[in-house]
Amino acid sequence: MFPIFKLPFLTIIGIVKSCSLKEIVMLSMTSNRSLRIMKNLLNHIRFCDNNNIIIDMSIYTSVHQIKVITVHDRCNTHVIDSKWMRTAPSCDKTFNNRKYFLNHYMYGLKTYWQDDDEAIQMLYNHIWKLFGTPVTNLEFNPSEDKLYLNLLESVLNNQDAIPQGSVGLVNLSEKNCARVLMHLQKVQNLSLSSNVLNCDASKFKFQNLMIEDGDNISFQKLIELNCESIGVYQHCNKDNALQNNTLNGYLRRWTAGFFPRLKSFRLETKASLTLPEILRKIHLEQSADQIEIDGEDTVLTAGPLNIHSVADGKIGTVYIMDTWNEHGHQLTIFELSVEN
Ligand SMILES: *[C@@H]1O[C@H](CO)[C@@H](O)[C@H](O)[C@H]1NC(C)=O
Ligand SMILES: *[C@@H]1O[C@H](CO)[C@@H](O)[C@H](O)[C@H]1NC(C)=O
Ligand SMILES: *[C@@H]1O[C@H](CO)[C@@H](O)[C@H](O)[C@H]1NC(C)=O
Ligand SMILES: *[C@@H]1O[C@H](CO)[C@@H](O)[C@H](O)[C@H]1NC(C)=O
Ligand SMILES: *[C@@H]1O[C@H](CO)[C@@H](O)[C@H](O)[C@H]1NC(C)=O
Q: Would I find Signal among this entry's keywords (predicted)?
């Protein structure tokens, strides 16, 4: 490679300023010395402060990706396992003494490795050292024999919390669901497939939890969840939809102080719901709240009404809205929102 680091400092600065993110990442990967130099140069041009970097990481079994995104540029680095090595062009490189194949494309780098799990760990460490920026968004899809918990632990060693995260439809044993959930408590906005709740979820505390495939979620599971906010989406199937009386049971538990951290509960369902049934035998009052409705296709159909928690005196406001999804199906939205 052309020895760019032998050039005068100001010249190097000029070069780095005109480099794309992809070039910066690639240059920094050539040796530990170039990582150190690039990092110093980036600090010098205050690259990390000014550009508001976003780091997204996605983990799937045998394919991973780290995206570095700034307002003006992006670099996606794919980490692909050895099965695909033969499809890779023959440009081979080394990184931390490990051989890999490299392929460029417009928005980034495709890298092919003998051991993709080790590679994603090395690459994550590298990106952290280079930019010092926390992971903003994590897509995490472990499997029974590849849980990637060491990687999660490294991330959580470097940052207290992960702002956004999601886990798709994975197939994990009860024990491994619990191990994964244990770590994911540090994700502030967490979207989970209900499959990942295949364990006693009451041991864990979440901040904002979304269950997008919540069609079959049971009452039992619902009351296990300890969150500040929960969204359950029952968009596909209404056979196992949460019933008026189930929601009644949930609200009664709230009034008895069962979910002291809860600030908001939202259910979107294809089933129709009626507020008088949901509030049966719960003491209620008219609410003076104005419900803000976003979306012109959404209409308030019942409420708002206030209920009280006898345990801590908090007031919860409940209401129902109707809306339509992108397929033109009518959906009912039930919400409980708890005043601070
Ligand atoms: C670069 O440093 C890492 C640890 O920081 C080490 O594992 C690796 O072996 C070093 N690479 C080379 C080529 O010395
Ligand atoms: C979590 O999601 C809510 C609503 O979607 C958003 O207002 C909030 O900023 C998000 N929080 C984080 C930490 O990303
Ligand atoms: C899920 O994993 C179990 C064993 O770990 C296996 O028996 C089952 O077939 C898997 N299910 C799916 C849908 O892959
Ligand atoms: C919910 O259960 C039904 C059968 O009752 C099944 O057909 C459907 O696939 C399940 N949905 C999810 C998201 O698990
Ligand atoms: C709620 O109650 C209404 C009125 O009895 C009924 O029409 C509706 O099907 C019920 N829905 C659910 C999901 O329980």
A: yes
